[in-house]
Design brief:
Number of strands: 0
Number of helices: 1
Largest sheet: none
Order of helices and strands: H
Structural class: mainly alpha
Shape: rod-shaped
Radius of gyration: 25 Å
Helix content: over 70%
Length: about 60
C-alpha cells in the first residue's frame, strides 16, 4: 500500500472517531440542555399568554 493511501485511511479512521465523539457530545450535553431551555421558554411564553388572556378578559 502506498504511503498516501495509508495516510488517507488513517485520516478517515480519525475523522470517524472524532465524528463519533461529536455525536456523543451532542447527545449527552447539547440536546438535554436545549430541551431544558426550550421547555423553560415554552413555560414562560405560556405564562405570558395566560396573563394576556386574563388582561383581555378584564377589559370586557
Amino acid at each position: 500500500m502506498a504511503d498516501w493511501e495509508k495516510d488517507v485511511r488513517e485520516a478517515a479512521a480519525n475523522a470517524e472517531k472524532e465524528l463519533q465523539r461529536l455525536i456523543a457530545y451532542m447527545n449527552d450535553e447539547v440536546v438535554p440542555d436545549v430541551r431544558r431551555h426550550s421547555s423553560t421558554a415554552l413555560n414562560t411564553a405560556a405564562d405570558k399568554l395566560r396573563e394576556l388572556a386574563q388582561s383581555l378578559e378584564g377589559r370586557k
